[in-house]
Amino acid sequence: MRKSLLWGLLAVMTMLLAACGSASGQAESLKEQTSIGLVVTESGLGDDSFSDSAIRGLERARDELGILFDYREPEPEDLAASIDALVQNQHELIVGLGFNAQQPIEEMASKYPEQQFILVDGVSEKKNVTSITFKENEGSYLIGLIAGMRTKSNTVGFIGGQKVPLIENFEKGFTSGVKEVNPDAEVLVDYIDTFSDDKKGAATAQKQIKDGADFIFPTAGFAGVGALKKAQEKGIYAFGVDSDQFYIAEEAVVTSMLKRVDTALFDMAKQLDEEQPFTGEHIELGLQENGVGLAPIRVITLTAEQQDRLDQASGKGNNE
């Protein structure tokens, strides 16, 4: 009886030691696994836009390539400290999203010259910072074509989160598309100095609707979500940005201008996985590179002529 009990105790101890050894091995393996650190925009996760698109790209890298990732949602004044913390966690790549990340990314790039960084929506001269920008004007031009062709009031609206060159690029493309097909249309433009205040986005949309806009294009992060919901409430049309935002306001969002941050970051993860060197280059992505484009058109139906005009502009038409 005692002998049987002794053997049982020995068996249990052996199993526990084996389990501990296995867990230790898994932890060691996890520590050695390739990983990427990400600092998102001030809108944070759940913006149904820029930050969420970046996370989708890294989730794809995790699922398809086995590359882990970690992220931070800092306040603007804490960006540098958050990036520094990610460096200390020994991620092979550190990604900063948005033009506001440029200064802290460059500060950390100087502090850690052996660390590789990715800057999205800015261009850095640092040799250990790879810059990724998008030709927002090309995608916004397509949005403008639709608004210009379909407006009944001959008034459409643009809402920008902040008056900086990046957002002005959206505005220029949108206005150019509207005027290309409808020179008499009026384009209302408002910059609201926030990417996070959805109430301010809604109030600005309300003002533009009162002034006659029947299509609104907000490029303002989470603040733009408020504008989309207001458009639906008031029975007019709107366009999403960065990600497919149809599900935010299914009765209003005609299409969204896709800024394929997810694809760009997955490509960077793939480059890391294949051990290709990072050279601090500037990568610019537009329609031709599939860096920008449109989500499916819903809510309205374009005529054959209007669809052909859109296809020609997006490079899908017959160019012969």
UniProtKB/TrEMBL annotation:
PROSITE patterns: PROKAR_LIPOPROTEIN (PS51257). It holds the Pfam family Bmp. InterPro entries: BMP_lipoprotein, Peripla_BP_I, PnrA-like. It is a lipid-anchor. It is found in: Cell membrane. Residues 1-18 form the signal peptide. SUPFAM superfamilies: Periplasmic binding protein-like I. Keywords: Cell membrane, Lipoprotein, Membrane, Signal. Residues 39-300 form the ABC transporter substrate-binding protein PnrA-like domain. Belongs to the BMP lipoprotein family. This is BMP family protein. It comes from Pontibacillus salicampi.
